[in-house]
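Feature request, filed as a ticket because there's no other form

It would be nice if the structure record came with a short human-readable summary line next to the tokens. Right now we just get the raw output. Example of a typical job, pasted below so the devs can see what we mean:
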Amino acid sequence: MTTTTTVERVQTGIRIEKRILKVLKAMAEVHDMSLGDLIEGIVLHAFEGKAPFGSESLKKIGELRKIYGLTLSAADSHKLIEETSPRKRVRRS
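Raw output as currently delivered:
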């Protein structure tokens, strides 16, 4: 028997690397769940020092990383800088 817990969810806007988002969305689809539910699960596992994915899911993630060109690793996590888009660049006369 599964016990459910009622929670209060809030809408939020976050900025995330494009290829990471594509892999996350694809994994949510693989597991037939929403992106928010997938992220909540990943975070709750991480908070307890547990791996959020088993070997089959990690294999699928590897395939999706190749498909979407995601070459970033955990070692890159605190070294990412955002690319300045052409629209945001300051033009000097």
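Something like this underneath would help us a lot:
The two ends are 69 Å apart (CA to CA).
The mean pLDDT is 92.
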